[in-house]
Amino acid sequence: MxxxxxxxxxxxxxxxxxxxxxxxxxxxxxxxDLLRLIAxxxxxxxxxxxxxxxxxxxxxxxxxxxxxxxxxxxxxSGYLNTxxxxxxxxxxxxxxxxxxxxxxxxxxxxxACIVLGAFxxxxxxxxxxxxxxxxxxxxxxxxxxAMRTEYVLAxxxxxxxxxxxxxxxxxxxxxxxxxxxxxxxxxxxARFKMAVVCVAVVGLLVGAALSxxxxxxxxxxxxxxxxxxxxxxxxxxxxxxIEARFGFSxxxxxxxLIALLLLCFSSLNWALTFAIPVAAIAAGKLKIPLLxxxxxxxxxxxxxxFPVQQLSVxxxxxxxxxxxxAVAVTTMAAxxxxxxxxxPAMTLRRSFPxxxxxxxxxxxxx
Length: 366
Prior knowledge:
Layout: H1 26-29, H2 32-51, E1 58-59, E2 63-64, H3 65-88, H4 91-120, H5 125-129, H6 136-145, H7 172-189, H8 194-210, H9 212-218, H10 224-246, H11 248-265, H12 268-284, H13 298-316, H14 319-350
Antiparallel strand pairs: 1-2
């Protein structure tokens, strides 16, 4: 599905992405912001071990804590985006919201990585700026468009354990963007009858889990890690659709029964791929006002964590010192991104006419 080759280090497979909010208050009513922040910290912690050259902590049926964080993000994304598009009934508005939410902060981050590389590269600055195969222009255009991913800048972080990798987490963005496009197209084709979309997609995914023949049919479109993330997104969407018609309790029971079926007849991996969205959404619905962050900084955490972590290891070496540095600097960068890039971008978006029917949905992180 995503087409690009990722660095071979298994550690970066726990890359991060983020969900979209469903309505002006959906994520504020519950703990979705807090849950996103926890998921971001799970990925950051897992990656900190990887960049330090240490093995990441494994979880049976999931992979690593980083992979768990990714699963939480995709599950929430499917749930909240489905609530949003069911309200607005506009594929155009949905995709424009996503564009304003994703790309401004991504552009700034990619530029920041290039500037950081200019200070860290071992090449003369003119050779760095005009390098053909691994130079800043290639890095910018591939990552800024976010249809493919470029990890390397000319001779940057070459002394690190994950040699030359500047921002490994970005590999999830092409998957998420393609999911948004396919999701909007299917919703439009089904005339926003989301139950039809979810039954068809989840039925196909359950078939892929139970049958190698169906899996082989699906694999030209989506396979490997992209298949897992697509399933998490689709299950989250299905919970939203069932909840809208029958309530959250029945949605939980229905998806849990599918997870149990897969545990019996497929594998623990597939069962957890269906169970994680239910658990994540249930946690997101909890109301804990004192623990709710004042702003959602998870997208900024996603964008800036990996280059900051590579820098922390380069400068400090020690796991504990580099971890403290990475958390502090990444949090600061995420707050600045939210205040000066992401929120102004969404304010600009709200100044344009909405094409949605009914109340306009305010996009949040995702």
